[in-house]
Amino acid sequence: MQEVNKLKVVIIGGVALGAGAAAKVRRMDETAEIVIIEKGPHVSFANCGLPYYLGGVIPDRNDLLLHTPESLKARFEIDVRTRQEVIAIDRTRKVVSIRNIVTGDIYEETYHKLVLALGAKPLIPPFPGLHLPGIFSVRNVPDVDAIKQFISLYQAKRVVMIGAGFIGLEMAENLRALGLRVTLIEKATQVLPPFDEEMTSRVVDELKRMGITTVLGDGVSSFTGDDRARSVILESGKEVQADVFILGLGVRPDVQLAKDAGLALGVTGALKVNDMMQTSDPDIYAGGDMAEVKYMIDGKMHWIALAGSANKQARIIGMNVCGMHVKFRGALGTSIVRVGAVNIGMTGMTERAAKAAGIPYFVSYNTAGHHASYYPGAHDITIKLIVEQSTGRLIGGEVVGREGVDKRVDVLATAIFGRMTVEDLADLDLAYAPPFSSAKDPVIMAGMAAEHVYDGTVELLNEWPMDPLQFQIVDVRRPDETAKGMLPHAINIPLDELRTRIAELDPQKPTILYCRSGQRSYFAHQILKGHGFTQVQNMSGGYVVAKYLEQAKVNRVAISVR
User: Fold this and answer.
1) What is the pTM for the complete model shown?
2) Do domains 135-249 and 468-539 have the same CATH topology?
């Protein structure tokens, strides 16, 4: 018989949130009865590692299984029931109805506290031909097993990856590593739609270098085939033939069970929770991909499906189930992905999001080596900052490069979490030695560049002029650099010659300055201002970002509302 005062916690779903919350409950309460009901065969697996298991980077599937029912029983005294599905929640009786998927038997389980960890479901539109063999989605280990078996069985040579988000790109890279010919299809006009478009230009270049064919701005219409899928028909009418088709169109919160139980949904369509992760029923908690969270930039509720938030929420749910009152402070959507030799990450608001939210802002770009330029192996890293105009507070950042992207994204995320301004960013005390960074880290340099905009020292070029001939456009790079390309209508006056050749410029004519990354053109900006030039603009990010923007077909080089 159950002890009268013994806490009983039933958790629906495993993986990061469910297993994490269960473990935390056990650490808080040694006597609690803890039951996990998991529909799938694995209670705790590394779903973020699935693309790398497919590509053989992780050779042993067991390495993805972080815990088994046996290990959770041995370490945490948790009753784990896999291949069982909760089909109903009776909130009045505090009972869940469970169906054993293997036997079909249905039984009930009581609870004191209930935790919902159902995650998200793949977004799969009802495309004609979707029933054909050879079309897959990826959410768990058996999904990847099925793809691997299909590739082997049919000796597949060609694969179509539909969706160029985080998982889509990781899957495409790993499929290419297997020697398959990969076509990546994305309905949006860019890869990685959560990012600002120009920052993804290097990713597109890297996909080309890897031999991956990319089709952008064209969505799926239908699939065709005979005994299995043979081709995908796009909305443009184009047909792409392949042996395997994988859907990576994103996910949506799995809220049907909660909705059927009468729990409130939020403005995003995900489950509504408070800052202690309680649903509209205070005895039912939820988190992870099925619940919405507070966005730390504007305080509004957003749906942010990321593993980092799920793991933190698991800990908070575990504590609050045991009687504490710990609050989840919110999320920034910090994320990163590797595509071949290029890494790209983001945190906080993109420029597009800030514009949509009506927040007055400005943007600043900076490109620098990821470590000291004189130390062998330095690679460019480009940082884009989105800054609140009225306060100088950092509200977003995006970083792209080959090395050192992760730590810069993490620094920016910490700065946004701490509500730092660009002035604070410029004053950070960061670790330095030649193999790791420069004395002025790229984040500090980015902060300094943005500070110059915020305090009015520098005026950034807002939009590429409709009539460039009305401006004098000056490229201050060296001749060996300009030989590789210049912007239209520009003249070349290297920075070190600017003072002696200043008479070649008209101080009354609007002047646009640019260099490779924005630093030398800033120096030139100050020289011209010191010589009485009154209409001088610096191109943020320089030639590097201008080429990104050109490739992205964005008719601007920076956005500034100052």
Assistant:
1) 0.94
2) no
